Each structure stands twice: as structure tokens, then as C-alpha cells.
Amino acid sequence: MTALTRSEVAVIGGGLVGVSAALGLAALGFRVTLIERRQPVIQKGRLGVDLRNVAISPASQALLGRLGIWDHVESAAYSHMSIWEEWGAAQLGFDAADVGRSELGWLVEMSPLVCAGWQQAEQVRRIDGVDRAGDIDIVLGNIEALSVTQDNVDITMLGGEHFRFDFLIAADGAQSMVRKTLQLPLLQETMDQVAIATVVRTQRTHQNTAWQRFLVDGPLAFLPTWDDHLCSVVWSQSRTQAERRMQLSDSVFCGEIERALEARLGDILSVDQRMMLPLAQQRLENCAPVSRVLLIGDAQRVIHPLAGQGVNLGLEDVAGIMQLAASHRDLSAPGLWTRYARERQTRSKLMIQSLTLLRRIYANDAPAMSWLRNVGVGFFNQFDGLKHQVMREAMGLGRLN
Ligand SMILES: Cc1cc2nc3c(=O)[nH]c(=O)nc-3n(C[C@H](O)[C@H](O)[C@H](O)COP(=O)(O)OP(=O)(O)OC[C@H]3O[C@@H](n4cnc5c(N)ncnc54)[C@H](O)[C@@H]3O)c2cc1C
After folding, report:
1. Which ligand 1 atom is at minimum distance from the Cα of 312?
2. From the DSSP assignment, how many helices (H) and strands (E) are in the chain?
3. Within this chain, do residues 229 and 351 fall inside the same structural domain, yes or no?
4. Is the CB of 15 under 6 A from ligand 1?
5. Which of 1, 141, 249, 335 has the highest CB neighbour count under 10 A?
6. Binding site membership of 391 for ligand 1 (Cβ less than 6 Å)
7. CB–CB of 229/268 below 8 Å?
């Protein structure tokens, strides 16, 4: 067993949320150790775009800018959003100009974004043997044991290395090892939906618009990339349908997805490899279960991708940590995270409840429901104040009240 190293904060998980937390705390002068299984790499599909893309809100973009990540990624701004449904004529449109902005958000390829975060972290990497405040040490490998006591957090790696920390931030994703080790109860919604994620080439340009059609079986989103004719697709649907669609030839799949979008972007000319991703909605009751541990990002909550808010919520977790850590040296001080945890819980709960309601409303093809949707959407479209408030909320620029 190698010598025990003492450091202030461990961040487990080097996805976008974890690496952002590490950078944020290092910028505030904390000594941080980022632990991740493997170094991330840039992944591109056949059409030249990563198959995993994320919609980044203006609030997240501002944070990524502060952390030095944003300037190193290619992003595609979108300024409109067009939403309609399978059964009924209800149409919703959002325009950035309505709230005095030039964009609603940006679509960014996930792996280059995470790699840009790592590049930043490597620049503030700790030089071997020199333990300085504001540095990030990166540890790659698998964790064998984790124990949290009143005084310390101890982590042993599979190779025998042993570390001791004052505080632990778990950003280790939906299947969080930290959550399981600490046996933290999870509130889960049973959902037999999965998503097919891919990239398609379209005949017409995407017009910097995020297109979303609510099908009875689940929402289909076409999100604009940096290429006017390439869209990132997230198609949520029942597992049975997804398994069938994964087996289709590319040309038959293109035909199905073109019909599903009512050919709003013309013919679907080609499709990249398809990925089937499990969907879940789950959250922790308490993201600060003991004074030395905080769980953030997907380790804290997982939401349906239909609103494109998962990673944005995770980055909000990071912004909140930075706010508190700016004025507190001892992150494990009793009660420090109580209010933060309560606020994050409320936010996750409201988001999950809203997305569940939205999915249920649109999954109902009864004529009465279709009529109700039309009335509701018509009402919503007439009240600019309400619509603008919802837009600001989705952009991370203000809370619904
Ligand atoms: C189809 C789909 C579309 C989406 N679209 C959007 C979108 O448009 N906008 C948006 O905001 N969100 C979106 N999301 C959600 C978003 O992808 C997630 O919220 C986000 O990736 C979570 O980031 P994270 O860093 O918390 O977790 P992850 O990205 O899961 O990262 C966790 C990291 O922890 C590491 N790890 C796990 N266990 C260990 C361990 N034991 N030791 C060391 N390291 C470990 C993993 O290797 C990984 O790197 C989408 C999700 C899906 C499924």
C-alpha cells in the first residue's frame, strides 16, 4: 500500500458535472483530487458529429465560460423552438427575440465538451509531490473501497493507493457507486421508455430551430448542430418500439423518422449509428446525507431528456457549490449544506413532476384530452408574460414563481 496522501476535496466522476466542480473549487483555492475510471476521448460518428449532444442553457454557458471550458468547444446556437403534437393541432413556438436575446441555448457535442473540461483540469494539475492550494490532482482507476467517518473520507484504489480527504463530492452518474455504498434511498419513477439517439442529415436546413414533436409513444426531438443540415436526434419511446427500430435498415429508419417529424425538414437523407439509451426519473431525498459528502449531477437526480435539462441542473449544482465555497474554507462544517440540499431537492422534485405531467398529457390520445391541450396551449400562447417566464426558467435565467 502506498503512502497516505491528505487532500481537501475528492471529486469522484469526471463527466461534465464532476470536472466542472473540480475546476470551480480549484479556482477558489481548494486542493482537489478528481477520480475517474478512464481518461475521456473525443468520439465522432460517421457523419462527423458525436452521437451524444447536449442542449446547454445560457446560465450553464456562462458557468462553463467562467471555468475556461466554453471557448474550447464548437457550439451551435439555436434561437427558436417549435413544438407540436401527433394528435391535435396544438402548436407552441418560442423565439429568443421575445425575451430580448439572440439565442435560447446551444447544442454542444458531449465528448469534446468533457475533454475541454479535462484539458483545463490538466492545466491546473498538481505537480508530483507538490501539494499546492488551487491545484487538481487526477487519479485514474477503479475504486476498491470507500469509507466515510466523522473525521475523514478514505478511498482505496484497486491498485492499493490510499487517499484521505476532508470532503467528498460524488459526481459519478446515474448508477452512483457512492450512493450505493452509503445506501442512500432513491425515489424512482418506473418508466418503460428508452431513447434512440443518433444524428441525421436532412434535406432542408434546420433553421437554428429545436424541433420537438410529442408522439403518443414519446417525444421526438431534432436539435440543430453546427452543420445546417445535420440534426442530433433524441427519440424517446417504448422499449418494444425502440428494439424494433434498432433493427431497421438505415433507409427504412430514415423513412420512419421522416414521417414521425411530418417531413418538416424535408427528406431524411442519411442516419448515423443508432444508440439505445435507458431512461429514468429518480432523485435522492437528501443530496447532503452526512456533513462530509455531497452528491451532484446525475448522481443526485436523473430526469427525462425531453426538456434537455439534465446536465444544466448538474451545472446549477456546481454553481451553488461555488457560491457557498467562496465564503467557507471548511466544506464539512455541520449544517453548511442543509439549505443548499433543501433547495436542490425542491428543484429536482418540481422538474421531475413537471416532466411526468407533460409526458402524461401528451401520451393521452383521447379526443377530450386533445381538445384540452389545444385550449391550454392557446391560452398559454396568449399570455406573453407567462410564456416568457417559462422561457427564462428553461434558460436558467430566473425561477418560476
Ligand atoms: C438521450 C439523452 C439526451 C440528453 N440530452 C440532454 C440535453 O440536451 N441537455 C441536458 O442538460 N442534459 C441532457 N441529458 C442528460 C445529461 O446527459 C446528463 O444529465 C449528464 O450527462 C450528467 O452528467 P454527470 O457528469 O452528472 O454524469 P455522467 O455524465 O454520467 O458522468 C459520470 C462520470 O462518473 C464516472 N464514474 C462512475 N462511477 C465511477 C467510479 N466508481 N469511479 C470513478 N468514476 C466513476 C463515469 O465514468 C463518468 O465519467 C440527456 C440524457 C440522455 C440520456
Report:
1. 11
2. 10, 21
3. no
4. yes
5. 141
6. no
7. no
- CA–CA distance, 296 with 63 (Å, rounded to integer): 16
Q: Atom of ligand 1 at shortest distance to CA of 302?
A: 19
- Helix (H/G/I), strand (E/B), else coil: 192: coil
Q: In the chain, what is the straight-line distance between the N-terminal and C-terminal CA atoms, in Å?
A: 54
**Contact (CB, 8 A) for 138 and 19:** no
On whether both 149 and 213 belong to a single domain, the answer is: no
Domain membership of residue 383 (yes or no) is: no
Closest approach atom of ligand 1 to CA 13: 34
CA distance 312 to 17: 9
Q: Which three cell numbers stand for residue 314?
A: 448538474
pLDDT tens digits for range 289-300: 999 999 999 999
**pTM for this prediction:** 0.93
User: Where does a domain end: 355, 373, 395?
Assistant: 355
> Do 330 and 215 share a domain, yes or no?
no
What is the grid cell recorded at 147?
469509507
Ligand 1 close to Cβ of residue 287 (< 6 A): no
Q: Give 162 Cα–ligand 1 centroid separation in angstroms.
A: 26
Alpha carbon nearest to ligand 1 atom 37, residue: 172
258 lines ligand 1 (CB under 6 A): no
pLDDT of 154-182, one tens digit each?
A: 999 999 999 999 999 999 999 999 999 99
The minimum-distance atom of ligand 1 relative to the CA of 19 is 25
Q: Is the dihedral of CA 68, 277, 185, 344 positive or negative?
A: positive
CA 343–ligand 1 middle distance (angstroms): 21
How many structural domains is the chain composed of? 2
